[in-house]
Amino acid sequence: xxxxxxxxxxxxxxxxxxxxxxxxxxxxxxxxxxxxxxxxxxxxxxxxxxxxxxxxxxxxxxxxx
Length: 65
Prior knowledge:
mainly alpha; about 80% helix; single chain
């Protein structure tokens, strides 16, 4: 993947992560929250966070201190 493709992917992942955050808040504030759906959304959000971290690592050069 080129740096441009990684940057585009990173932006899409961040948008999806924000959307999931809003969905989790909305679902959690419902009178009767669907715990299974809530758990699935949180798990997806964690996977997105990991993928975001991977993309950021690919864009930033390693600095040996």
